[in-house]
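1st attempt posting a full record on here, be nice pls
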Amino acid sequence: DAIDVALTAHWRSTSRALEALEAVADATRGAGFWPLVRALDADADTNIDADACEAYVRARARAFVPSAAAARVMELAMGARAYSPRLEAFRAMGDAATRDGTGGDDARVACCRVQVGDDVFTEVYALVAAMDGLITRARGETFARTERDHAYATFDDALPTAVLYASPGTACFSAMHDALAKASDSRVLNYVLRPVLFDASCARANSCAASGVDGNLLRLSGFGIELAVKNMEYKAIDDSKIKSEGDEGDQQEDEEHEDEDNRASKDVFADEPVAGFNFATLAARYPESTDALKLFRDDMKKKLSLASDAPLKVWDIKDLGIQAAQRVALSSDPIGALVDVSQNFPSLADSLSRMPIDKTFAKEVRRNHRKMQPGGLVMSLNGEQLELDTVDVYALVESIAKEVGVYEELVHLGLPSTIAKFLLRIPKKENQVKIDTDNCESIVFYNDVEKDPKFERWSKDVKHLASPSPGGFPRVRRNLYTVVAILDPTDHGMWDMIDMMDQMVEAQMPIRMAQVVVTGARDDTVSTRIDPSDAKFGERVALAANYLMRAHGAEAQRDFLSAISINRQMLSEPSYFAPATYAPPTWALARQVLVTILSQLGGVDGDVEAFIVSAIESTTRNDAARELEHVRRDMSRKGLNAPSVLLNGEYVRDAVARAHGATLATMLNHHLRLEMSRVKTMFTQGEFDGVDDVSAVVTRGASKKIRPMDFRRSRESACVLRARAV
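the predicted structure (as C-alpha cells):
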C-alpha cells in the first residue's frame, strides 16, 4: 500500500497547448508565438486521443524553437507546468473584463471574448459592426499592458487596444483573430492576445486545445511525496489447518491434471518467479530438464541472497561511498543512476563493493572532503551557487533557460560551442561598490560572532557552510557577515532598520553589526525636505547616541536606540497582510529613555537632567557636538551618505531602495540572501582554505572610500570623441 501526498494549486489544470504557446513565446522572445498560434488553430486528426494530442502539441512547439538545447529546456518547463500560473492569470483578467464590461451574462459563458475599453464582444459580426464607433470611444484611453501580453504587430500607445481572451483550436477563434489582425494591419487598433481556454467544451473535436484539461486541481511538480506503507503486524495462525486444507486442494488438483510430468514439476517449483524466471512454467514445458532447472534456481537464489541480504565485511564497505558516487558520476545517465542507487542501495551494495575505484575520481572526492561536512549539499549552475533554501523546480528551470539563452547568443555570434560553454563557466565579476570598514573610528561593532559567549558552542570550521542549517545561516563561529548601518534620526525609516537589527540579534544570526548615527549626511542627488521639528529631534538623538558610544560603548548606544524604537506609539496592529505601523518618536520619549540609561550606567558628573540640558539640548558647541562633527567628517571621507547600509563592504543606498519601491531594511534582507549564496560559493571554490581572517576574504577588493565620477559636466568641458578616417 502507499499514500500519495501532493501539493495542488488553487486553480484547475490548464491547457498544455496554451502552455506550449507561452513556452515558445519565452524561448523565441515572441518570434514563434504567432506562427504557433496558426499551427495550433489548424485541424488535427479527427478524434485524436489525449496521448497523441500531447505528442502533437510538443512536436508543433519544437518546430518553432531555434535549437535542440532550447527545446529541451522548454520541455522541462512544460513538464513542470511552469506556465500554468500565467494562463490562470489571463483567465482571471478575462473574467474580470467580462464581469465589469458591457457584455452581460452571455459574455460570462462565451469561449471568445474581446475587450475594447469597457465594451466586451463575444460575436465577430457584432465586433465588426461596432468597430468604427468603438475605436472612436476608446481613443485616448490608456491600456494597462503587461510584459506577458502578446501584441500582433508593433504596439502603438496612441491607438486603442483590443484584447482577445480565447484559445486557438476553438470554434470562434479563427474569425475573431482574422478580424482583429486585419484591423491591426490597417493600424486602426492594437491587437493583444491573452490565451485562455475558459472551458474544455470550447475546444473543437479535431483540435488539441483541451489537452491536459481534466477538471481537477493542478498538481505542482516537485512538491509531492509517496509514503510506502507496509503492514508489520504479526498474527498467530494455526497452520496445521491450512496445511491440511492445502493438501486436500493439491490432491484435487492432481486428479484434474492428466499430464504427470507437469504435475511433478508443479510439486517441485513454486509459481513465483526468481530473478525474472518462472521455473514452474519452464519445468512444465521441459519436464526432462527438471533437475537442471532446480540446480539453476537454487544457484540464482544463492546469488540473490548474497547480493541483498548477506552482511558485507568491514573491508568491503571501506570505500562504498566512493564506489556509489563513482557509479553515478561515470554513468551515461547520471540522474537515472542517482535515482537507482538512492532507492536500491541495499540490494546494490554487494555489486558496488566489488567495483574497481578510479584513482582520479577518488582523489577528487577526498579533496572535496576537506571542504564539505558529511551530509553537506551544494548545488551550482555553471559555477554560480544556487541557494538551496529558496530554489525550487520553477526557479531552477528559469535559471537554466537564461543560461541556455546566453549560450545560444554566443553561438549565434560565431563562437564555437566549446568556447561558449567555457565562457558560461567563468565566474561573474561583482559590480557592487565595496567600502573598507576597518580603521574608521566612527564604526564600532556592538557584537562579535568570534568572541561573544552565546556563539561559543558553535564550530569555527568553515566546512559547516556546506551543511543545511535552519534559517539559512550556517552555525559557523566566524565573522562571515558584517553589517554597518549608517542611520539618520531625521529619517522615519531608520526605526524599521533598528527593529530588524534587533530581531537578528535575538535570533542569534551570525552577523557582526555596527550602527553609525549621524545627521547632515544626506545624499545630495536626492531632494528631501526635512521638517524643522524632525531636524531638531534628529540632532539631539544623534548627539545622545554618539555620546553614549564614546562614553559607554557601542552596546549602550544600541540599547538607547532600541528602547526608543520599542516604545513608539503603535498606530495599527500587525495583520496577516501588513506589519504594524508606528508614530514617529518624539524627543520627550527619547529624553526619557536617555535619562533611564544614564541613571543605570552612571559616569555623569552631577545631575542627569542638568547634563542633558547642557550637553544635548544646548545649542552651544560642546564635547557632544564636536563628537558628532567628527562622525560627519569620517562619513564624508568615506563618501558615505545616511541612511545607507554596508554589507560586507557592499554599499546599499536608501535612494536605490526607494527607486525599487522598497525600504532600506527590505533591501538589506534581500542582499543578505545574495551574500549567503556568494559566501557559500567562495567556500566551495576554496577561498577560505587556511585563512584565519575570513572577514578580510569576504571584503576583498574594498576601497578606502567612494570615488564617484561626476558626469554632470558643462558643454564646454565635455569630451567629444570623433571618428578618424583611416
